[in-house]
Amino acid sequence: MADQQEEEDLKMALRMSMQNSPPEPKRSKPRDTAILPATTTPEDSRQLQRELMAAAAEKRMLAAAKAAPPSSSQSKNERSGDFEMKEAEKKAKEVNLGNELSDKEAHQLFAMVFGTGVSKDILAQWSNQGIRFSPDPETSMGLVQHEGGPCGVLATIQAFVLKHLLFFPDELGKVAANMPQNLNSRRSKSQYVASNNFSAFTEDAKARALVKSMSEMLFLCGNNKRAVIATLSVISHGIEGSEGSSKDVIIAQALEGLSIESASDLQKVLRVDRYTSPTSAFKRLEAMIPIFQSRMGALLFLISALLSRGLDCVQADRDDPSQPLVTAPFGHASQEIVNLLLCGQAVPNVFDGRMDLGGGMFLKGISTSVEVGFLTLLESLNFCKVGQNLKCPKWPIWVVGSESHYTVLFALDTAVQDENELEERESQIRKAFDAQDQSGGGGFISVEAFHQVLRETSIRLPSEKLDSLCNSGFIVWSEFWQVILDLDKNLGGLKDSTGQMGRKIFDLYHFNGIAKSDLNGSQATTEGETPVQRPRLTKLRVSVPPRWTPEEFMADATVAPGNAGSESSQKDAEVAKPEQPPQHAPLADCIRTRWPRAVCNWIGDPPSIV
């Protein structure tokens, strides 16, 4: 109605101006029709209509312009206000608070990790372990552990960190645009020896090695396609833009009083982000590293790995998905957690491939080669058999498992994994034998499987030896191996008349991240020596004898002066024998599962794997 009256007013104004008479007072109601003066000719009437229509159109255009968004002719203040608003929106998007898990996902995750009826002590262990480097100069390249449960997570991260620090030091300063390729990257087959100056690593280099390792491991769990990063809502937004020690203060204040005792507690504070770009994931981890250094760090990284793999995929990997991944009663990380972080699959076994139990049932093992490997004391006790995939990783770094703890063993020289003629042949035969072993690493196979091994390895046994081995209905590895050692090379055996094949001497380092009293590093005080609480780093000299039994080796180690002979024979004897009597510790038993017949020596306290 208002628009109609405005048009009538316009018509009247135009008509009055054309009559050269004063305007008529405004009416309270619109006219029904426009009254034209009697003297108006038809031509004038048509002209007036055209002008009225043009004026009305112009008025509508002006009204539309007023209703439209501000044009480029806005004032400077208006443009500045809009810019500030857009910047604020952009910053709000950059402060990524992540997404909540659904109620179902949170309960599935909590039950998968801790099960039902988990004790408060176990929850406290996993809620009070950060991913931090040791402040001790001698062990500053290592992650320090204060709680007894999450060692499986820390040790595997430590192994990957050492890979980057030792063998890719020049890559630490580069943008992580091609990180998944690191999974398959290897230096040339030529020997590479890393530096043993561990205290020379800068804080920045260690931090970048940690971020690269975490990103690599998460993408490994995500099949090199995705990575999920879990953080906490109570602090993830508070550290954006903070620097230095202020981040630690903010995090400590935010975590004060926070406890995770149920799936509901976890859902309230957990936030997750999914990434398909390694560069984006690297930058997010780099920004959130203070959170992973906090007391919740180890648990958050485990959750990140599980979500990267996918909860349903994790359960499918396992042989018994009804059991929690964190084992009772001490809260240790299960082998499934360690395998997930090492190879990207939460399988429970350490042998290669899978074992057919018949009836469509299988036990799952390690299906592919790995960057860093695994050794266990349980193999030396004949409880399991570690396959070649974990035993011979791409880099000379191994997570070492005992009954209750995980530590790390590593070498600086890649040549420790090089095989000579004898070792290559041994590996070939052992791999063929293990492929037929359906006993779970028990070391025996059927007669039919034994004949398959002989065909694959081109071993031609004399009939009497073949009958002797097959007489019991199954073949034991130790008996088979002794026959191979006495079998001539032309028959596929390994008989060595010189006794020098397989001789090796090299150094290994063992790192135990749990802070313990170190008497070697004790500090002098007025009241005596006070042991230092710090991780342990031990250097070992490993000697692999040329003979095939330790007894033969030790018998040959002592060379009578009258039999010294030539200079070359003296040098051979000097290299072959150990520099000092062999020492024993459970770690030496683990090392012998990788290098049979090896003997070890070290200075100071024996290395501890507990």
Structure description:
With 610 residues, the protein is an alpha+beta fold. It has helices spanning 2-19, 42-67, 76-94, 103-114, 120-126, 151-167, 203-221, 233-236, 245-255, 263-269, 278-293, 297-309, 311-317, 335-343, 377-380, 388-391, 421-436, 447-457, 463-470, 477-485, 550-557, 567-576, 586-594; strands at residues 227-232, 270-275, 326-327, 332-333, 354-358, 361-364, 373-376, 397-401, 406-410, 444-446, 474-476, 504-525, 528-544, 599-602. The strands form five sheets. Strands 7-8-9-12-13-14 form a six-stranded mixed beta sheet, sandwiched between helices. The longest helix has 26 residues, at 42-67. It is globular and about 115 Å long.
Distance between the termini: 90 Å
Uncertain segments: 20-40, 70-79, 83-95, 177-186, 522-526, 556-576
| Contiguous helical run count | 23
**Morphology:** globular
Secondary structural class? alpha+beta
Helicity, as a percent range = 40-55%
Strand order, largest beta sheet: 7-8-9-12-13-14
Extended strand count: 14
The profile of the biggest β sheet is: 6 strands, mixed
The mean pLDDT is: 80
The value of Rg in angstroms is 38 Å
Protein name: ubiquitinyl hydrolase 1
Domain Deubiquitinating enzyme MINDY-3/4 conserved: 110-479
Region (Disordered): 1-99, 559-588
InterPro entries: EF-hand-dom_pair, MINDY-3/4_CD, MINY3/4, UIM_dom
